[in-house]
Give the backbone structure.
Amino acid sequence: MEQVLDRRRLVPPGFSVLSSEITENGVKFVVAPDVSFGSCPCCGSRSKRIQSRYRRRAADLPIAGRNVELIVFVRRFWCEAVLCG
């Protein structure tokens, strides 16, 4: 009997699971943020202007003896505040 895995419980709030794949060697999840804006770490203002996109690959503890690979699509935003350094 194959177990059903609730993908929503495996990612933090604010992220959506785009895909998941279970193989004999491991489990792979691809996730992306739900929000369409970023907050500047210096001034805190919100921006929707995307500077770049890239993906990060992380490993986690095994699930049921299988390796876990987490691929996160990340975006960097430009701060549009006039006085922000």
Observations:
- Strands lie at 15-22, 26-33, 38-39, 46-47, 50-63, 66-77.
- The mean pLDDT is 82.
